[in-house]
Amino acid sequence: MRVVIADDESLVRASLRSMLEELELPVSIVGEAANGEETLALVQEYEPDLVFIDIQMPKLNGLGAIESGKKLSPQTSWIILTGFSEFNYAREAIRLGADNYLLKPVSPEELEEALQGWLKKHEKHKLFRNSQFENQMIALAHGLSSIEDTNNQDTLMDTAFLCATFIIDSHLEEKQKADILLQFSLALRQCAYRYIGGDAKIAIYTRPTGEVFTVGCWKYTKQTAGKTKIQEYFGEINEMIIHFSNENAAITAIQSADCSSFEDFQQQINKILDLSALRTIGGIHKKWGIEQLSAYQTDSHITELSCILIQLSDYYKAEIYLNYMKTVTDFEKALLNANLSKQSKAQICLFLHYALGCSLQAEEDVNTWIQKLQHHGSQLLAQNQKNENRQTDLVDQAIAFIDQNYMNNIGVGQIAEQLNVTPNYLSTLFHKKTGITFTKYIMKTRILKAKELLLSDTMQVQQVAEAVGYYSTRHFTKLFTEFVGCYPSEFRNQFKMENTSTTTT
């Protein structure tokens, strides 16, 4: 907690500093000010969490400093230091947004009580604001709103972003992988709580295609402590990857560069997803920067080989034997075209060990690798028949959940957690069994329900949009028009005209 002490009396400042330092609370005094102008300079530089400020000060009094300081750092809280004769000023300060006031001389007990009360309030407010940001990211990722609507609310304007995705490669049962991913996500969230606050916000969510992402943001228009907090948070990710990976499951992270706008952030996400396959040759069980992994993209043979390795893993997990065996053949051809170093071969062996449970050695020749992969894939024939009913049941359960909860903010991560599988597996399985992506199925369900509701004259278009789960009427209208071919109002009018014509006839 960053604190500024502002009082024109040096003894008062020294006394307050001493009492604050003796309290067993997370307090860091970043500056002292002897007048209102110095206070504002410190607020602009540090954007502190809390300012203790005297009402009567030279150049600019406490009331003026609060009013101006709120514009410089909206999230900063203010506690007034006042005497009995200045009580009316204290009430005015509360009206301006001060959180509390303390009568001079301040006792250690009164100071601690005021701080404890503020900390509880601050913690709730901090979590609430971060939850708002996370909900925005989820809504944008799942198509429930658009960046235009969010920017109209002035919530992501002048904001910088940093993001990373987490990929788990493992041949374990889906329930075991889901447990690892869940525990990792919980630990990641606990870590994030230590860094949110001020203008630093962190979201952790699952994209519709099954990838787990974390996003940090801060205001880039100022040199804020928020950027430092986000960088420190992402700095801990590598240790967490090492902690949660084991001999049967490897977690790999791919981190973006700093993004100066939401558009840049979206481009970085797409680039991360495009590059993710290259981990199969660059190396898993580590954190990659997007620039580092991009270096492998310069060789088209390497890029092709990495995509084939991902296909091989996906077909094995989905237990599609014929596609798996065909991809083994494609893998053999790609290996012959690629000029692999010994290190790259070792990384491929490591990936196949984790993803398929197939043991290859870098020193072995291509024929030996192919024979082992073909033998490993032959086991899919027996597994395919045994697990076909379970896969269908998982998809049926997912569809039933969507049909019952389409109006809520749901995603593949939430449903996968309930079914004890990983989001990526459920997303792949859902597309395989239904022929449609998870996101498109939810959108189709919502739009079909919206068509039913629009046949009623009692609901406005905005109410219909909200009833089927869309935050923005404009975004709902855009999706409805793309799906149905006309505006919601036009659809309603067409039905009325057809109904009237039938009745007349």
Write a compact overview of the structure shown.
The protein has 505 residues and is α/β, with parallel strands linked by helices.
Structure notes:
This protein has 23 helices and 10 strands. The chain has 4 domains: 2-106, Response regulator (Rossmann fold), CATH 3.40.50; 128-291, EIF_2_alpha (Alpha-Beta Plaits); 299-378, no CATH class; 398-504, Homeodomain-like (Arc Repressor Mutant, subunit A, Orthogonal Bundle), CATH 1.10.10. The mean pLDDT is 87. The protein is of the alpha/beta class. A 5-stranded parallel β-sheet has the order 2-1-3-4-5, sandwiched between helices. Strands 7-8-6-9-10 form a 5-stranded mixed β-sheet, with helices on both faces. Helix 1 links the parallel strand 1 and strand 2 (28-33). It is found in: Cytoplasm. It holds the Pfam family Response_reg.
Q: Which band does the percent of strand residues land in?
A: 5-15%
The CATH architecture category of the largest domain equals 2-Layer Sandwich
**Beginning-to-end CA distance, first to last residue:** 75 Å
Report the biggest beta sheet as strand number plus sense, adding barrel if it closes: 5 strands, parallel
The side-by-side strand order for the widest beta sheet comes to: 2-1-3-4-5
| Low-confidence segments | none
Gyration radius, in Å: 29 Å
Write down the overall geometry.
globular
- Mean pLDDT, to the nearest integer, reads 87
Total domain modules? 4
The helicity comes to 55-70%
Tally of helical runs: 23
CATH superfamily of the largest domain: EIF_2_alpha
